[in-house]
Design brief:
168 residues; mainly alpha; 2 domains; two-stranded parallel ribbon; 5 strands; elongated
């Protein structure tokens, strides 16, 4: 089946990184032309009335790219899992593993919720151990890979072809 839409990988990743979860906010691909429009910018100038904007956004003439919140909704435990993965993979010393695990969990005590990677207590312990640069690089690489994996799955699920600058 041919894809209805095409999107540049860089635009798709930008949408995942910066767009909010406001219902209309974000990037849209226009069917046929594959033009990328951003609500509040291109649409507000192109369509005068709010009803016309909503009608267009909800039509089958465009598809909204996923947002930061959609990637978070699709993987709600990613922050916790990646932090524990870092501790398991990068920390060899048993005492340091226990210290970092305790620091990470301590913000919410015995509750189910966990701190985000970069919680103040966890980062303070990393800084004491001289591992902040290592942590920042680890989290950046893992998150970029996570975004790409999510983007590819989203495109497959939504019949969207990913193109790169080399394809243009």
């Amino acid at each position: 089946m041919d894809e209805k839409y095409q999107v540049e990988l860089s635009v798709l990743l930008e949408s995942l990184e910066y767009c909010s979860d406001v219902e209309s906010d974000g990037y849209y691909i226009v069917r046929g032309s594959n033009k990328i429009i951003a609500y509040g910018e291109d649409l507000s100038e192109e369509y005068l009335g709010e009803d016309a904007v909503w009608k267009f956004l909800q039509s089958n003439e465009c598809i909204k790219l996923p947002t930061l919140h959609e990637i978070e909704d699709a993987s709600p435990n990613w922050n916790r899992d990646i932090t524990f993965k870092y501790i398991d993979e990068m920390i060899n010393d048993t005492k340091q593993k226990k210290l970092l695990t305790k620091a990470y969990k301590s913000i919410f005590g015995n509750r189910i919720l966990h701190a985000f990677p970069g919680s103040s207590k966890f980062c303070a312990e990393l800084a004491k151990l001289g591992r902040m640069d290592e942590w920042n690089l680890f989290i950046k690489e893992k998150y970029e890979a996570h975004q790409l994996e999510f983007a590819k799955k989203w495109c497959k699920d939504n019949n969207v072809k990913i193109i790169t600058e080399a394809d243009i």
